[in-house]
Amino acid sequence: MPSTVQSADAKTVKEWYDRNEILLVDVRETSEFELEHIAGALLLPMSSFDAEIFPEIPGKKIVLHCAIGKRSEAAGKMLLSEGHQGAIHLTGGIDAWKAAGFPTEVQILPPRQKSPEPVFLCPPPGQILQKEYLAPLKISVPDLASHIGISANSLDALLKGEISVGVELSLRLARFFSTAPDFWVHIQLDHDMEQARHNIGENIRQEITPRTAQ
Question: Region 120-130: what's the mean pLDDT?
Fold first, then answer.
């Protein structure tokens, strides 16, 4: 049995998808799915993902995806630990799928309705920690803080998005939840990068000319 989750890029998954060779499983939350998703994907949110009762689908590959590939890889590891073989996760998630030019289904607004607020695909680590670990596992803030050696106030601030995950806190969380050491700090980086692109990305594009274009 493989010890790591197999991965596939968007182009490969699209080829399987077009040949009807896969069951595409979206592990994002319901609010994310309702706003935009890949047509035909089955929604199994990470916050309620149960590897023990995950169905076997004879004759089809199981491809997991999320926003950027972190949650789907974690779900794949959960399936491996329960003896499910052949689960694959989409590298880069729905973000990579769209970047490759492949279609999604999006929410259609009625005429004259005000456009919604920007949709962010990379939630902060505190949100993922709360929804996908603390709530499902019924772990309280004081208990987790005690287990990983930080103050409850600091952990509460992380959950509220008031502080960021650094490398030390990523290691502490990884040790307790048995994730990759850089799992949490990468979630923080993806979130920060998305926020920066939204807030100042256009200004940077206008202010700076690439060296190759000069």
Answer: 88
